[in-house]
Automatic annotation (TrEMBL):
PANTHER family according to UniProt: DNA POLYMERASE KAPPA, DNA REPAIR POLYMERASE UMUC / TRANSFERASE FAMILY MEMBER
Protein name, entry field: DNA polymerase IV
HAMAP family linked: DNApol_IV
Gene: dinB
Top EC category: transferase
UniProt organism field: Enteractinococcus helveticum
A single GO molecular function term of this UniProt record: magnesium ion binding
Amino acid sequence: MVSAGQNSVSGQKYVDESWDATILHIDMDAFFLSVELLDYPQFRGRPAVVGGKSPRSVVTSASYEAREFGIRSAMPMAHALARYPRLIVIEPTREKYSQASQSVMEVLHDITPMVEQLSIDEAFVDVEGARRRLGSPAQIASLIKERIREATQLPSTVGVAATKSLAKILSDRSKPDGIGVVPANRTREYLAPLPVNVIWGVGPKLFERLNNAAIHTVGDLAAQDPVRMKRWLGVTGPQIVQLARGEDPRPVEPRQDAKTVSVEHTFDHDITDPYLLEKNLLDLSYECSRRVRNEGLAAGGISVKVKDVDFSTRTKSVTLHTPATSGAVFFEHTKHLLEGLMSQRWHPVRLLGVRADRVAKPVEQSEAQESLFDLEGSSTQTHSEKDWDATDKILDDVAQKFPAAAIKPATLLRHQRQARMSDG
């Protein structure tokens, strides 16, 4: 593992050389599981995962002890349990992850405004403008880890380099709970002996093709002629050669707003009952809208996704005339989208999902939201935006204080009764 204050190639001690390595990649360690272990400390040091307990669920996050058995994120839960039958499975609590992520990002924004959030648990930051105030990039990386630990009690790993691609490589190779540093002038030297698949864009198939061509290391790839590589691999060829040579001009681009918020559910058994489908759609619509509201955002579009019994995936979307936050408005749109998908092809449904698209901060917090009754063609608005806000706020407050509470919209309860009646 490369560590701050060391020569990244030989391990020989040097004075801190990281001053020109101003791009940091911060990645939380086994994020979802680490958050859950705050509430389940008895599972620390044991093979454990976060995910649904249904055999059809997938692993969301795996402990490093579980990884020793070959268990990885996105692996079907049935496969994970087959590898280690005594595996501890913790069901996800999504609200906790959003809160932890927000705390992490607040720490980063306190360091510098140059934060490019990639996902809920990782981000790039450019600390060029923070060096005079906080020290070298290596010192800033250590400070970031310390502040994240203080704010969240969670471990993180930081890669420190002159380029995005190398910073990401370093954070991957310095886990868990580490700091990887490569000074700018040692970038190519560090990369040369690494396996070629550390380069962004080199997936399993391309990795095999490169190996068959005797290109095994990053150094081998860096030595290739970009023109020849373009003839062989198209535009990907010169791009991966450039990255292998340590050339990555992409800047850190701050992203203030999320683009999408999605929720989905994989059923234990394929669903054919339209009432049960609509009941689950309503539940997902309210959950998705709640997450959007919790971030202080609004949705500019809504999508519905279904995965059929043959694993084919279909989606249908709509653009909203006015940004929406209400669960009732979400459901009115998703209901029509699902009807459209199922009329195209009726298949048993394996997975159902709802996604809020073009999610951003509302232009004005007081801007009127599209009324549910307007959607239904009524010329008289009998419910105001404030009415929906009040209803949603009650549901949000209850969900926050009592996560397991069974308080849901009355329409949802009606559909639950219909589903029970249809089951006989």
